[in-house]
Amino acid sequence: MTIDVVILAAGKGTRMRSDLPKVLHPIGGVPMLGRVINAAKGLGDVSITVVIGHGAELVRERFADSGVQFVEQTEQLGTGHAVAQAIPNFREGATVLVLYGDVPLVKTATLQDLLQASENGPALLSVVMDDPKGYGRIVRDSLNAVQAIVEEKDADNAIRTIREINTGILAAPGNLLAQWLPELSNDNAQGEYYLTDVIARSVSENIAITGVIADDPFEVAGVNSRAQQAELERALQADTANALMTAGVTLLDPARIDVRGNLTCGADVSIDINCIFDGEVSLGDNVQIGPNCLLKNCQLAAGTVVEANSIIEDAIVGETCTIGPFARLRPGTELANGAKVGNFVETKKARIGLGSKVNHLSYIGDAEVGEGVNIGAGTITCNYDGVNKSKTVIGDGAFIGSNSALVAPVEIGAGATIGAGSTITHEVSADELAVARGKQRNISGWQRPTKKS
Ligand code: UD1
Ligand code: CA
Description:
Layout: E1 3-9, E2 26-27, E3 30-31, H1 32-41, E4 47-52, H2 56-62, E5 69-72, H3 79-84, E6 95-100, H4 108-117, E7 123-128, E8 137-140, E9 146-150, H5 157-160, E10 164-173, H6 174-180, H7 197-204, E11 210-213, H8 226-246, E12 250-251, E13 257-265, E14 270-271, E15 275-283, E16 288-289, E17 294-300, E18 305-306, E19 311-313, E20 315-317, E21 322-323, E22 328-329, E23 333-335, E24 340-343, E25 346-352, E26 357-360, E27 363-369, E28 374-375, E29 380-382, E30 392-394, E31 399-400, E32 405-407, E33 410-412, E34 417-418, E35 423-424, E36 433-434
Parallel strand pairs: 1-4, 1-6, 4-5, 7-11, 12-14, 13-15, 14-16, 15-17, 16-18, 17-19, 17-20, 18-21, 19-22, 20-23, 21-24, 22-25, 23-25, 24-26, 25-27, 26-28, 27-30, 28-31, 29-32, 30-33, 31-34, 32-35, 34-36
Antiparallel strand pairs: 2-3, 6-10, 7-10, 8-9
Bound molecules: uridine-diphosphate-N-acetylglucosamine (UD1) and calcium ion (CA).
Uridine-diphosphate-N-acetylglucosamine (UD1) binds next to helix 3 and strand 10.
């Protein structure tokens, strides 16, 4: 089956009250249009045309590398008019699948069902709603065959009681749409060219319509306002949380996790409350994440424990590491197995070797730290001279005394010891002790000053 997907994304989204085009607003960290494109790509080898209008340049830019084609609808004259803009992109013998950039949670499996139903003529996706207000109603005859879609604004009271509504999503032979769409009329309550009128046209030509009923209303729900966006965000997060638990992940509260991208977990992973996973995150077997952590684009290998309130971004963490509480691993951090990064420690572009410890109150940036190194509380790598960044290299087994400043570029040899409070500006060779601080003087018989009367 040749499938040409058309995604409508030209509308203004007035009720979002935003400068950002509506379809670029995210759900689960991904722009709504991106989700729809991904659902379509899940169908396999399809061509995708996105109809853009309001904010066209921004939408084009954002999806320039996504392999979709764009056509511009300069005036929004209705959904039928919008699909008609894509007719030049229809391929010979293709089935056209119409999707919406603001219906972000549609699933590939549902689209497959719809496409299957469209083999002999148009198929539309409907859903039954408790409150169908505002939607186009599906009108069926006594044999339950679809007769037409009537928009709310064109409906009489009897039709308004129908609770089966049009999701807008439909599949139909491209040659029929290419013939019918240019012949639509806009003689209706909104003065628009309705895509939905192809249903009545099909019936009038004795081509039967197949209705496929979606079972999850969220899957076909559109976003017109921030409140609806938030509602779908919660629905998606609940789904993701359920999928994680089904896969064997412990969530201390499934209502308090946010996944804005892809989270993959090994066996027996446990995640405490209020954690956010952004971008691509993978957690190995038995990883434990404490409360209030933010993890973005990172990999944590098996057995690693992240304590409360830690932030990890663009980092690679080995097995059985301990991170936090209150640690911040910035981009370019790599921890070897068994490394420890403790409270109020910030790392950036830092490789920390096997079993090395940076337990308290430190900044380790642009650094290479060997194996079995102990970095005392309050140690700072002074990596920036106000113009350039420089590197600190610390050899295996070195011991850095508390409150040391390592002024980069500088190298500390393997097994070297740095006395507490040192400011190190020159290389220290292997196994040497370096002490670089004012010598202690004790003054006996010292009299404290007294208050002048
Ligand atoms: C449409 C359907 C209605 C259905 C509802 C589901 C029609 C005539 N009606 O109504 O039966 O119940 O969706 O949500 O199709 N768009 C364009 N260009 C246009 C007009 C619209 O790109 O000229 C895009 C919009 O950006 C939007 C989508 O098409 O993403 C739907 O348009 P909208 O005006 O919201 O349709 P509804 O009136 O909601
Ligand atoms: Ca409308």
